[in-house]
Specification:
Helix content is about 50%, strand content about 15%. By secondary structure, it is an alpha/beta fold. The strands form two sheets. A seven-stranded mixed sheet has the order 3-4-2-1-5-6-7, with helices on both faces. Helix 1 packs antiparallel against helix 2, helix 2 packs across helix 3 and helix 11 packs parallel to helix 13.
Length: about 425
Amino acid sequence: MTPQNAARRAMALTLSADIVSAAIAMVLSNLVVWWSDKGHGDFPLAAAMLSTVLFVTAMTASFLVVRIHTQVWRHIGWPDAVRIIQAVGLSGLIYLLIYLLFTGISSGAMAVPWTVLLTALLFWTVGLFAMRMYALSKSTHQPMQIFSPVARNAQPVLLVGDGPNCVEVVRRLESTQQASKIRLLGLIDTEGHETGRAIRGIPVLGGLAELASVIEILTVRYKTVPWVAVTGAARERDMMLQVLEVASDHGAEIMALSKDPATQALERIRPADLLARKERRLDMEPVRSIVENSRVLVTGGGGTIGAELSRQVAGFRPAGLTIVDSGEFNLYSIDLELKQVLPPSAVIARLGDVRDAARLRDIFHRAQPELVIHAAALKHVPMVENDPLEGLLTNALGTRIVADAARTVGTIAMVFISTDKAVNPT
């Protein structure tokens, strides 16, 4: 059975269970109302059957409109409980409208339907929650969690931003599945105008100047460091840096609402969020056209920069990737990693020093690279300042040896990666 068919089957079963419970609730309601009538008389079988059919029809229409059948009972929470109450109320309204179409409006006709309907809605609501609480107890052993707006183990969150944006974030969070997994403890108003008030029931605990003390108080009270979620003005670079400094001092993670409307979830702040400009995304197609199906050689491929370049090259599916490095462990690590991405035969790791011309010529002769990325270098300036000759031999002479070897085997292009100029950008 495919996952789609399994999901459809589960939704059909849950809707069927709700339909059966609605029919039972209406039958019981008719019995209770008939029994409580002092005159008793014969049981109104036809009226009971009609009311049951109408009630089931109204309930099915309501639950399909509100999409109650899509709920997963074993993961049900407070937002789902609210939707069930809404659907029950809508069912009652639809039932009354249908009943009026059949019987017309009269005080005598409405007296019994009102009593029967209210009793049926009571029985039915109890049945709906009983079934779901049973399913919840089997999965979480916490059946009462359905009546709690947040789970007991919910993540405490402190929201930082300007008033209008805080309202929007709270509204969006309350409408997502993540609502039961987080607990909004309070708000920090970056404008400092709303301290002491509440926004959608959540207290404003202070301004940005009070952020540190608020985090400390909440940490003591809830015995865990809250997340610090930023929105609106707090996502501007200067203010973000202030929040980042305070949060890092207290060990708090900084979060933000996802920009994807489909998820509306809290996610970690990315380094790009701290830029004083919009993130620039490079067009990688020209790179792909050079790397794809080509033989590529990376020197210094086990280092920090060289390893990342090797990973990105591997993502473009080269015909072959040769990694050269003088450090055995770094070379071994990147070799294992890349063989999880490319076929093992396409990745070749070679121990070698770019100062060794004979070794480099042999490696290049075997690899026959069409593209060479030269990342091997001594890049820690304080160390090279202590031994400048070593830096000269590796960074200058080594580069010349690599270039000569590339030219000898007919390499089409060589990219020289140099980061030494980044030490003092000014």
